[in-house]
Amino acid sequence: MNSSDKLLVRSEATSDNVWPTLIIFIGLLIVEFITTSYLFSYQPDYLTKWENPVVYVKYLIYAGITFLVIFAVVAWPKRDIFLELWRASVSGSSQAGRIVFNLAIFAVLTIATSAFSRYAQASQEFPWLVFSAYMLLLCIAGASLAMVVAPPGFWLNSIRAGYPEVFVVASASIFLLLISLLAQESWAVLAKATLFVSYWILRLFWSDREIIFDVEQKLLGLGDFGAVVGSECSGYEGIGLVIVFLVVYLRGFRHLYRFPHALLLFPIAICAVWLLNAVRISALVAIGARISPEVAVDGFHSIAGWLGFLAVTVSVMLASHKIAFFSAPGTGAASSSPPSRSQRELQGLLAPFLALMAATLLAAMFAPNDQWLVGLKVVLVGGAIWLFRDIALRMAWRMSPVAIAAGIGVGILWIATDPMANPRGSLPVWLGSLPWWLALVWVALRAINTVVLVPIAEELAFRGYLYRAIAGRGFDGNSPYRFNWLALCISSLLFGIMHQRWIAGALSGAVYCLLVCRSNKLADAVVAHGFSNAAIVFWAIAAGQYSLL
Asked: Which position among 185, 187, 302, 347 has the lowest Cβ density within 10 Å, counted as fewest Cβ atoms?
């Protein structure tokens, strides 16, 4: 065995050994956090919110948790360095001793928390001295918890090795905390601004006499239809989602952008998603007054926000690469060379899924009258697959017996676990009202979309792109699918969240993922997914269990 083989084996062994330590740490963290929070019952009512030091401690804890989550993502490319530092620090050190030390400190903290709460409740003024001593004990408990993972030397060396990431993530955590606090205090102001902008959009098409506009009641309407524009309609959710998306996207594709120029994408995207939210509210009022209140409330209202978010994020991804101001030299608009094979494959993996999402959102906007828009999905998703057909054709297509059996098995389990809250619904009634040939056309379109197009689009995105992205694999068409626990769990969980029954969806995604890792062929996941959906469609029509569709 040569030196490179030894290094690979040692790295794999280190990666395997660190997981039990992290599981113990997370378990202790959850237990100690919940216990301490439960025992700490002191809330000084005689202090205002920002005079209360307990509030600051709570927000610092939130910032710390945010730091850990963001740092895990940002520092992931350096994981081999941190694993090597961890291995060197724990060799010859007793983890059992560090755990016992933490439990001893936690026992003292438990007694101190209960005693401090009783003492502070009986005090006439805030006990600053006792509170300071309690905070010192809390910090010691936090340090002892960190020592469960590794001795202090590891943490000091990790800060030295990753000080740029530590600084950036700490700044980002504090910034996000401040933005969150500012948003909580300014929702009313943002909602009022949204109300006025939505009103002026309506004024472009209708006279002031036709529009209902009441600032005090936060009411905006047209004719007999009105909507209350409260704080939840201010657009803060879209702004938050856009910020998170840009942080992750710019981090993952930072080599394609010019910094700090690319940071201007944040205010541009924030303004765009906020303006689209105002357009959404004005369109909601217009649809409710002029088309259908049911379509406005049941369809458009719940979907248009996601459609706006999708429009902004996709526009940022596509346009920013074409603008030389944002693109790094030699990429995007700064380069006249055609897209590389990996870039072409990346686009081909995501385009069908984005088309599927756009078609689904557009169709859902017109619920409950969206049945015929299944044709829109066939056109958009099929068109995207056709545009990037070279990506799909490169897959080693074959009807693997294992993939077929696994797919049918997943389909049977999906059918068996259907809660059947509404086994028939309105779909069979609607189909029965159509001429037989027209109903047959609809069923054929639905089957093509569900059995053929959806499996291709979803597998290209989740197993073709997301799994490989998390596992650190490339997109040049030759990167093998090696098993990775983290990639399996995250990609399967996100796949499940897309479905109403997210647990069953996540387990189904895990099966498809294991098939790909087994054969190193993405086509196996597509075939299995297609047979799963085929079994579900067949049973839904044959047994009249239309809740499955």
From this structure: 185
